[in-house]
Amino acid sequence: MGNLKIAWSVATLGVVSIIGGGLAGLSGAARWSLAQAGQLPPQKQQAPAKVLGQVEELPAPASTHELTAEDVATFLDGYVPGQIERQDIAGAVVIIVKDGQVLYGHGYGYSDVEKKKPVSVDDTLFRPGSVSKLFTCTAVMQLVEQGKLDLDRDVNDYIDFKIPATFPEPITLRRIMTHTTGFEEWDKELFVGSAADMEPSGAAMREHLPARVFAPGAMPAYSNYAMSLAGYIVERVSGERFEDYITKHILGPLGMTHATFVQPLPSGLAPLMSKGYDLGSSKPKDFEFVNGIPAGAMSVSAGDIAKFMVAHLQNGRYGDAQILRPETAQLMHSRAFGVMPELEGMALAFFQEDENGHNNIGHGG
């Protein structure tokens, strides 16, 4: 993918880091990123150090070597355990992909503190929160490919209720995926205590419709409601329940058998879910039910989400599966909105930034 890189704050590569310790079953701090890791650009001939006042400016290294799994293990194994202890975190998992495969994956700490159950890359499920939105928008783009959805059509044409025309400009799927719908943020009953408290998706969309406070495209304003609406549109246009659509058209083709949007968890996955903690030393909390399912209800292992990362890094392809056409994936990864060229912007669902000559895209949760 050329110069595309998506980086996590601790390493300049494709990383999913899902850290236990969140509220009621959520992972608490989850950051999902992609990267095309490789050799960094060679530096110019080394220059002598300069002294600026009392501060010595050290010369840049003459060259760097290709990043290896050993490099990553040395860094992370020396860094993460200390952070877990200092921050009182139950457990964490880190996975890095490079050149179409996993370069490094490791679990730290416990998924169940009381039972001293260690975190596993492949068999421990976490709740990555808003990283779920990347799956929702991948589903939208699949239906765009099929001609069933139009990124620039008024979404009122796809739903069974009416979003008021507060502004002349319509709300579109492109606006939803760049968080520029202008909706006031919505979190009323976004999280509920039990499956019995969850609302059918259509009812939730109608009853919790937020106010439109900005004209579409005028102001970036993160919206869980808008992303939930995108999932509802996927449901209506495909004729499949949202959770079933994601399983059939994304998780299944990618071989993501340890991943689901279903709540409560299917019986085969429930024992694999990590406990949720405010602190690693505190009591675990109950599994948290997300009413806005497309915006944040996923449960997934690090090993499985790595497959999704690779698919996007390879323009929609993972192994023999092609979940997006290359041109669709490239469109999804391209900057689609920015207030100013110098500031970070939005691709379609992905946060976008330029760093050291690299185009970075990713998402937090």
Give a structural overview:
Helices cover 27% and strands 19% of the residues. The chain contains nine helices and 17 strands. The strands form five sheets. The chain has an eight-stranded antiparallel beta sheet, sandwiched between helices. It has a three-stranded antiparallel beta sheet with strand order 8-12-10. Helix 2 (132-145) crosses helix 5 and helix 2 crosses helix 6. The radius of gyration is 21 Å and the shape is globular. Mean pLDDT is 86; it is low at 1-30 and 35-53.
Keywords summarizing the entry:
globular; disordered N terminus; Beta-lactamase; alpha+beta
| Largest sheet report | 8 strands, antiparallel
Give the H and E element order. EEEEHEEEEHHEHHHEEHEHEEHEEE
Q: What is the number of beta strands?
A: 17
Helix content range: 25-40%
The CATH topology is given as Beta-lactamase
Strand content: 15-25%
> What is the architecture at the second tier of CATH?
3-Layer(aba) Sandwich
Q: Please give the domain count.
A: 1
Structural class: alpha+beta
Q: Stretches where pLDDT falls below 50 for ≥5 residues?
A: 1-30, 35-53
- Name of the CATH superfamily: DD-peptidase/beta-lactamase superfamily
Q: Can you tell me the CATH class? A: Alpha Beta
